[in-house]
Amino acid sequence: MAGLEIITFGCRLNAYESEVIRARAREAGLAGAVIVNTCAVTAEAERQARQAIRKARRRHPDARIIVTGCSAQIDPTPYAAMTEVDQVLGNGEKLKAASYKTAARIAVADAEALRETAAHLLSGVGADGFAGRARAFVEVQQGCDHRCTFCIIPYGRGPSRSTPLGRVAAEVRSLVDAGVKEVALTGVDLTDYGKDLPGRPTLGQLVRRLLAAVPALERLRLSSLDPVEIDEELYRLVAEEPRLMPHLHLSLQAGDDLVLKRMKRRHGRAQAIALCERLDRLRPGIALGADLIAGFPTETEAMFENSLSLVEACGLAFLHVFPYSPRTGTPAARMPQIPAAERKARAAHLRAAGSAALARFLSSQVGRTAQVLVEEPGRGRSEHFAAVRLEGPALPGSLVRARLLASDGAELLARVV
Description:
Helix content: 25-40%
CATH topology of the largest domain: Transcription Regulator spoIIAA
Oligomer: single chain
């Protein structure tokens, strides 16, 4: 193997950081290597990473295999013990070119020490990492200061820290200059943005200033938002700024107050519903999505029904559903557990409700005209993030007007106009 292969698991943040890894590894002259960027959100994600490592070794018996990411940061020893693995790097180390020049078996700093890798490592992909793509991610925040009882990620990402506006604007400008039409801002706890910066700017202020600083940016999206941290400036932008896309994803997690309390979330069911109603008033027809966990410890059938009914109560169209996965070291792992089969069944029930909600939303779009960002030949995304199958001439990377003709329940069929 002569080249460099990167296998990515998990969130948009990992997708972004895989491009940073690619740039740093090339800077170090690394070749003949496979880098596996892991996720620690669920046991299934870790199982898939181990499977990918073994498969990579079978495909490339002579390659250098490096494992990094949240799972490797939190517990590097099991990966180092795998005969297929040559090196394990932590979340801070994976973003440094020097890490790919050393043969150290394990190079993982303490999670709290990740604070020292903060701002100058948070951005830096620029146009090269997303060359030729219609959409790009830009990391503006890293780490988390909260401790939800189910979540292991703060132990793998360290404390919250933010990228200054000037650095964000410079990276977005370089992407736009390279032809990128849409940028999605991402972070571990995106709405916590700015609390560690001078003047404590909010996420809404970042968005407003970024759009002013890069007027050529045509579309801006945001990754997952915490319901209790959305600031008034961001609400105003939802209502007034056409370049901020009418699609928001919310970190709701559950729809039952007692479950939310045991999760150590900072919002309740009524707050979640009120938030979604407010967003719909500000931007009529906005598409809303949410993360939901099925089978959290102590969750009764009635509690689960409250989460299920949240899909309709909040008008959710895009769901990310996870069966609860115990994470060693978290408080929830010590709570009375729901049987795995029941967790899986509840997750399937939630996903079915989500599929039905998406089908209803897509049906409501039929007959309208949308601006579709073409991501690959014949396929793209509308302003509402709906998947669109296109008829007619449409070059990848372009924005086209399209008439939405029909829906199959999962995507829209449209004709370029």
